[in-house]
Structure formats: C-alpha cells, structure tokens
Design brief:
8 strands; globular
Length: about 190
C-alpha cells in the first residue's frame, strides 16, 4: 500500500496550528486520514529556526507525495518549499517581501495563540531576506488565493510577484481570508493528494 500523501500547512506570523484556516483544513481532512497526513507544525518565532523545522519535515517525509498550503508569512515559506521541491503549493494572502512588513514589528512580541514572548530583532529581518526566492521558477505549481480588502497586505504585490501562477482574487474579505473553508475541496484537488 502506498504511504499516505503529506499536506504541509504553514501558518503565518504570530499564528499557530489552532488558527481558523488550519483548523478548517484539519476538519476537512478527517475523512481522508488514511490517504493524507496533515503536518501542521507550530513554527518557531525566528525565520531560520522555522525554516530548519520545515527542512526537517521535508527530510522526514522524503519520497512521499507532498502538497503545501501557506498563509501570509507561511505563504512566503511555502513558496520556498515549492521552489526547492516538486510540490504544488497554495498560497493564501501570501506575504511578499515580509522583511519590509515586519520592520514595523521589531521589539517585544507575543504570539496570541501560544502566549510565547520573544524579541523580533534586525537579524531576523535579515534572515527573512536570505530565505526569499530570488528567481521564482515554480509558478505553474502555485495557486495564489487573495482577497482585495486584506488589511495587512496589498494584494497587488502578490499579483505582480506570482505572475504566471493560478489566481483566485475575491473582492472584499480580509487578511484571514474569509470563507477559506469553502475552498478546502478545491485545494485538495489542486494539490492532487487524493
């Protein structure tokens, strides 16, 4: 029997596997547990540590069919996974150039899900720059889901960044991507995991 496929879900900045989208995906996948293993780590606060976690997961599941869903900062990281593997990825309101965005968040941070306190420093902004994919070549394996009223990110940046990818652009909504649960079936179909 084939080993189950792996769906790697990467949450965003100061988020967790308990976020609404991660939970919606987990719920949707319940009937497919034999076929699809959901891997949704609590990512480390610091970019290099988070990327190390992701690399460890990729190594652990080497040889299995892999699909990735990434939200916001997780979308930035999922782009790197798609670029370095053959996996397809769904990016939900992905952060483009998060190192520019997170400059405004330097200093004391607290993750509202885990209550973890940590310091976001300039070195972490530099780490994000290092993790950016400079020459994107995996667009045909990306589906970018955007809502135009995202209050955190300008969706137009993603439209430019991911030119050549598959797009869903919904009017209104917000950064959390309202109605995400309605797309779970289409996401599984796109990732071709079942």
């Amino acid at each position: 029997m084939e080993p189950p496929s792996v769906l790697l879900y990467l949450h965003g900045f100061n988020s967790s596997p308990n976020s609404a989208k991660a939970q919606a995906m987990a719920q949707y996948l319940e009937p497919y547990q034999d076929q699809i293993q959901l891997v949704c780590p609590q990512l480390a606060c610091y970019p290099n540590d988070a990327w190390q976690q992701i690399e460890d997961i990729l190594n652990q599941h080497r040889g299995k069919k892999l699909g990735v869903v990434g939200s916001s900062l997780g979308g930035f990281l999922a782009t790197r996974v798609a670029q370095q593997t053959t996996a397809k990825a769904v990016l939900v309101n992905p952060a483009v150039k998060p190192y520019e965005l997170l400059k405004d968040y330097l200093g004391e941070q607290q993750n509202p899900y885990t209550q973890q306190h940590y310091q976001l420093e300039q070195q972490h902004i530099e780490q994000l720059k290092q993790l950016e994919v400079s020459q994107l070549s995996c667009q045909q394996r990306l589906w970018v889901m955007l809502q135009t009223a995202d209050e955190v990110l300008d969706f137009n940046l993603a439209v430019t960044e991911y030119k050549g990818a598959t797009f869903t652009i919904e009017e209104g909504g917000d950064h959390s991507f309202q109605g995400f649960e309605n797309h779970c079936a289409a996401i599984l179909d796109f990732l071709a995991l079942r």
